[in-house]
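user: Please supply your own:

assistant:
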Amino acid sequence: MRHCASHCGDHPVRDHSAHASRLNRVRGQVDAVARMLDEGRYCPEVIQQVRAATSALKALEMELMRGHLEGCVADAFSSKKPNLAQEKVEEILRLLS
């Protein structure tokens, strides 16, 4: 696993504590889905909880993407290394596909 500091030059390692908190919330939502299924709850109620967990994960993904774009990717484009910028473009395209 790579860390920001190891592949983005002088970019500091990001503090992901806020992300961990959001992920714990998602974990609780997923656990709630499992309980609801075990209890035989009404399908639309379960679906609503699944959608809430999915939405929370998507929000986490966007926070991480924003941090990466504003940090590592911006640094790559402002560097004097054109290959580094191209690598970041390819990286983002892989993530989006």
